[in-house]
Amino acid sequence: MAQYSAQLDDVFVALADPTRRGVIRLLGRGPTSVGDLAREFPMTLPSFMKHLRTLESSGLIHTAKSGRVRTCVLDRERLAVVDGWLAEQRRIWEARTDRLEHLLADPKEHQP
Questions:
Q1: Candidates 1.10.10.10, 3.20.20.450, 1.20.1250.40, 3.90.440.10; correct CATH number of 6-105?
Q2: pTM score, two decimals?
C-alpha cells in the first residue's frame, strides 16, 4: 500500500473540501457538464473551476471538451484507492480488537 501513498494523499486532500465531495457525489450519477455542476454550488465559476482542477489533478475526475461544453467524469478506479486503504485499516483494527476480546474473555489462558 506504500506505493499508493502519493495517490492516496492527493485523493484525501481533494476529498477534504465539502464542495469537492459534492461534485464527486453528483458525478456518481454519471458524466455532467461543468455548467450543470457549477449551478449546484453558490460560488463564482472561477472559484468552482479551482475545485475541479484539484479534483482533476488528484485523478478523481477527468474532463473532456466537445465544442463549447466541458464534461466531467468520475474515475471510480481512483476513488477505489480510498476504499482499499480503509478496508486495510478496518482489517488491522478488527484483528486488534479480536485479540483484546479474546484476552479479556479468558485472561487465565494468557497468563505466563
A1: 1.10.10.10
A2: 0.79
